[in-house]
Structures are given as structure tokens and as C-alpha cells.
Task: structure prediction
Amino acid sequence: MGRCARLAGELGYSALRFAALSVRHGGTLAPSPRARWLQHVCRRVLRVFSLEHEVHGPMPTRGLLVCNHLSYLDILVLSATTPCIFVAKLEVRGWPVFGWFASRAGTLYLQREARSAAARVAGEIRAALDAGMLVVLFPEGTTSDGRDVLPFKSSLLEAAVGSPHDLSVGHIAYTVSDGSVADEVCYWRDMTLVPHLLNLLRKQKLGARLRFAEMSATGADRKQLAQELRSAVVRLRECDPHAATSRADQPPAVPASKAASALSS
Result:
């Protein structure tokens, strides 16, 4: 069966599974079962992409996780690794198919043009943290080709200033066996979703490396905290020997060891 057909089958199965879960929970799912449902979806979908990933450092399970952002694959890889809730731009809700899944998974949406949106989403982040969830934030505000970590926007970090909840940073990097990470795995510039996705499904093998570190932030305000967090993510990037060379003109890295249960059912 072709990968497109397999992907459609997995998404259809997962939609039915969500409907069954909703019925079982009386029509309303709490954040925790939504996150576990998304984790199940992402683990199955990553098999379709023939993507293997390895994890280095303490894997966070609650609190706020701040990570660099390269592609929609980031969401699949992070969620397959640990149940979590994402903060995303409002446009994601309108993406075909993926927007439906993101909404069902409890994604917190930010309308960047609205001045009051950041304060509202910061309140939603605090509520999710208080409920014991892991919330993933991409403070770069956009995706890139991965050659550097972009400056962090501080607007949504207010929820982390003085927070008693755990704070972690993460860095994600990719390899591809037959192509360019920057041009074919990363989703940036003026790329469009469907052509990018179809091309990605044709790749023989993809790899992802996740590096995590716990943080003890000292920033007295969100702007200082943004600088501290970006510096911590940059340090994680510098620990990855292939992060700066995973391009078509460089040999792709081969995953050395996978997380033990990263892609288990």
C-alpha cells in the first residue's frame, strides 16, 4: 500500500478512535486523554514516514517546554515522545486535516494580530500547567531551516515568570537519507503544506534527534527569560554534532540509539 493511502488510513482510524473516546468520556475529553490520544496518533503516523527518533537528556512530562521550531514534524515527534499540549498560531486551525487533529488534541491557538490574545493564551497556559500538563511553546514564532536558533519572542513567556512549574528546553534536528533537511524536511519560507507533505512521504528514511535539559530560570521578566531560554536551546544545539551539517552537501547522520519505547503502540 502506498504511503499516502497508509497515512489516510491512519488518520481515519485515529478520527474514529477519538469519536469512541469522546463517547466513553461522556462527550467531553479532558486535556490528559486528548494528549494521550494525540501521542497514539503521532506514533502511528511516524511509522508511515519511516521516521526514527532518538532522545537525549531528561524527557519532560509536565511543566513548560520551550523548543526550536523547524517543521510540522516537530509536533509529531514531540507528541510521540511524551504527551503534551501545543501552542500554535491560529492559522494552523484552518489547515486541511491537520487543523482538525490539532483542535481535537487541545491545541492553544494564538491570534498574533490581536493585542489581547497573548494575555488570554498565557492564562490558558497557566491553567494547563496547573492541571499537570506539559505545554510546548515555540518562542521563535516561526519555522526556519535549522541553521540557527532565531530570537525568541517573549509575549507568551509571562506564564513562566515566577512560575512554580517545571521548566525545560528542547532542541530538535533532522536527518534525511536522500535529500536536503533545509529544503525538504524543514517547512519554512513560502512552502505550501500539501506539496511539501507529498514530497516528504517519498523519502526513504527520516531521522530526528531530541535533546532536553531542565532549566532553573533566573529571569526577572519575560524578556530576560526569553534570552536565557534561547541561550539554553543554543547550547543544546551545540551538543548535536550534526545540527549544523544536516544539509544536502553533507553526509546525513545515522541515529545511534532510539528511545526505548519511542514508537511503541
In short: The first helix runs from residue 3 to 24. The radius of gyration is 18 Å. Residues 244-265 have pLDDT under 50 and may be disordered.
